[in-house]
Amino acid sequence: MVDMFWRDGHSFVDYQCYGDVLIFDSTYKTNVYNKPLVLFVGTNNHRGSIVFGAALLSDETVETYTWLLRKFLDSMNGKMPKAVITDGDEAMRTAIRTVMPEARHRLCIWHIGQNANGHLKSAEKLKAFNRCIRKYQTVEQFDRLWQDMLDEFDLHDNDWINNGSRVYKVSVYKRPNFEHTVTYYPRKETESVADPIMVCSCGMFEYRGVSCRHMFSVMKNENIFRLHKSLIVKTWSRDARSVCEIPYPNKEMPQEAVQVSRYGALTADCNRLCFYASKTQEGYNMLKMKIDRLAVIMEGLASDQEKVQGTAKPTKKGSIMRDLVPSKTKGREKSNKKNEPSRRTVTCGYCKGGGHNIQTCPVRKEHDIAEAELGSDDPPSVATTAKRVVHCRNCKQAGHTYVTCKKKQPRTE
């Protein structure tokens, strides 16, 4: 197995409802095979992160990313995202331009901030940089702030800063936050968010999908107490999942998958039933009796079904899935400290030499052999544990205790 992509039914439904913006990211060597783990992530109606799919790849080339994006779209019934956010990898950029030409490719602002921390290395420079890319502003204001930063910190010769196209793409779609103009169309008959009854120059509704405070000021003056339907983006509503239309693929689901789905649904219901039945003896006895009776009935139904359909047999010889081959990806190699030899040097307590201990010391062994040939009565030079000497607390002599002391005075009544 070289490349693998997977997603489940829940991810399919989430993508159909919240797949307008797709985050395409990969992490490096987070598994034993050193395979790049690619995640397709989005945001739901609670602004929480959700996973649309995942993949283990053999490499990070344009061909591999192109294959992955095509498999992703095929599994999602061909739905194309409106915007794709990446970390700026050139292979990802080329694959997105090939497979998703209509989607807008944007850079992740978090990765831009991480790159800025590594290249600018100054609190004042970082503050000026963040003011350029994070502040609501027009294109003209951005150009002015950017030029002021270059002049103030003399960054005209900085190679990373001069690649301004990446930063410009993040900031060009934001709008000013002062002297805004709200246009209200009271007689417009519309329910589409693409043609709302109010349009504000701040662009917050177009940018975030949420009505801005300037619109609320107009509603207050116009005595409007309910949000108009054209000002409510269904993606951010409570019932976003129920109102979105999910085009399920016209493919027959395998019988094994249907069986697994049924098993999961029944298990959840039975767990709740067993929880309440276990609280009382009467409930336990009743449920136990019902389960025994239903088990016999279900076994009969399953047996009859197998006789009708027959036992399923594989038509082709299955392929053997072997271990993945570790691949080399981008990023610094991680050292395996468990397999590395210990850097601590062992010191002998007898000769004070290195590389051995007192039990394997060659000097001590030669000394013991020489003493044995000379007939020395000294014991071998092996470390032994000293024996504890017992002393009597009555006569202060060794070899016995107070209980067995013969000089102990008899007790007088």
Task: Describe, in plain words, how this protein is organized in 3D.
The radius of gyration is 38 Å and the shape is extended. It has helices at residues 9-18, 62-75, 90-99, 109-120, 123-134, 139-153, 159-162, 165-171, 204-208, 213-221, 240-243, 255-277, 281-309, 362-374, and strands spanning 4-6, 21-27, 37-43, 49-56, 83-86, 104-107, 182-184, 198-200. It starts with a strand and ends in a 39-residue tail after the last helix. Strand 5 (83-86), helix 3 and strand 6 (104-107) form a beta-alpha-beta unit. It is 40% helix and 9% strand. Residues 164-177, 311-320 and 382-386 have low confidence and may be disordered. The longest helix is centred in the last third of the chain and has 29 residues, at 281-309. Helix 2 crosses helix 3 (90-99) and helix 5 (123-134) runs antiparallel to helix 6. The protein is of the alpha/beta class.
Give structural attributes.
413 residues, alpha/beta, six-stranded mixed sheet, two-stranded antiparallel sheet, 14 helices, extended
- Low-pLDDT stretches are 164-177, 311-320, 382-386
Order of neighbouring strands in the sheet with most strands? 1-4-3-2-5-6
Gyration radius, in Å: 38 Å
Number of separate strands? 8
Quaternary organisation of the protein chains: single chain
First and last CA, distance: 94 Å
Order of helices and strands: EHEEEHEHEHHHHHEEHHHHHH
